[in-house]
Amino acid sequence: MSSNQSDVQSRPTSYACPELVLDIERVLDVATRQTIRAAFGFDLAAPLVVSLVLVVEGGPRVRWRIGRDLMQQGLRSASGLGDVQMWPARPDEGGTAWLQLASRDMAALFELPVPPLEEWLERTYELVPAGRELAEVDWDATTTNLLAGS
Question: Model's pTM, two decimal places?
Answer without folding.
Answer: 0.79
